[in-house]
């Protein structure tokens, strides 16, 4: 369970390879189901987490957004975000998810900014593994032809030697 009552609660998710967040299922809520999400570089270090403020942590994110009324099951593609953001294009190994916090809303909301207490229990988080197409390695044509010619020469010499 995470909430924003008398402090901040976030869950840091680490995956073996970059993924995209697809949806979240909340199994319990306390007041509202507003949440904040941030993605970090794949070289993210947890060693300095105790020295960073939440604002500094949010500023170091490669993506951050706050989502309103996520309800029981929420698809991030619906983009009910306080900021114009497209989470569906973001891949990361490190995702921070928690109850709503204004520092993750880069639009600096005023009227639309939720001020009520939020508490959530995440039942599941659906992800999509991002597949990266391997970069083809170019084969140098002259080198390949030279190697082929050397092999043919070697075979012909071997055949001549055997015939003698």
Rounded to the nearest angstrom, the distance between the terminal CA atoms is 85 Å
Look at the helices and sheets and give the structural class.
alpha+beta
Q: What gross morphology would you assign?
A: elongated
Beta content comes to: 35-45%
- pLDDT average, as an integer? 80
Helix content class: 10-25%
How many E-type strands? 7
Number of helices: 2
Q: What is the total domain count?
A: 1
Largest sheet: 7 strands, antiparallel
**Unreliable spans:** none
Order of helices and strands: EEEHEEEEH
Rg, nearest Å: 26 Å
Key structural traits:
164 residues; PEP-CTERM protein-sorting domain-containing protein; 2 helices; 7-stranded antiparallel beta sheet; alpha+beta; 7 strands
Structure explained in plain terms:
This protein is α+β, with helices and mostly antiparallel strands. It has one domain (2-129). The protein has 2 helices and 7 strands. The radius of gyration is 26 Å and the shape is elongated. It starts with a strand and ends with a helix. 23% of the residues are buried. The model has no long low-confidence stretch (mean pLDDT 80). This is PEP-CTERM protein-sorting domain-containing protein.
Layout of strands and helices, then pairs:
Blueprint: E1 2-3, E2 10-31, E3 35-40, H1 54-59, E4 63-67, E5 73-75, E6 92-99, E7 118-129, H2 141-163
Antiparallel strand pairs: 1-7, 2-5, 2-6, 2-7, 3-4, 3-6
Protein name: PEP-CTERM protein-sorting domain-containing protein
Summary, kept brief:
This is PEP-CTERM protein-sorting domain-containing protein. The chain is α+β, with helices and mostly antiparallel strands and 164 residues long.
């Amino acid at each position: 369970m995470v909430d924003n009552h008398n402090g901040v609660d976030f869950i840091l998710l680490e995956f073996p390879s970059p993924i995209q967040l697809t949806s979240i299922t909340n199994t319990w809520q306390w007041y509202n189901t507003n949440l904040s999400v941030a993605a970090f570089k794949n070289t993210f270090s947890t060693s300095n987490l105790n020295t960073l403020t939440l604002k500094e942590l949010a500023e170091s994110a490669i993506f951050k957004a706050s989502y309103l009324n996520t309800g029981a099951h929420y698809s991030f593609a619906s983009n009910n975000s306080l900021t114009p953001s497209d989470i569906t294009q973001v891949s990361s190994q490190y995702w921070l998810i928690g109850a709503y916090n204004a520092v993750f809303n880069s639009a600096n909301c005023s009227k639309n900014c939720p001020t009520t207490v939020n508490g959530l229990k995440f039942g599941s988080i659906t992800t999509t593994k991002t597949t990266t197409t391997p970069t083809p390695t170019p084969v140098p044509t002259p080198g390949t032809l030279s190697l082929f010619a050397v092999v043919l020469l070697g075979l012909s010499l071997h055949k001549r030697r055997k015939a003698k």
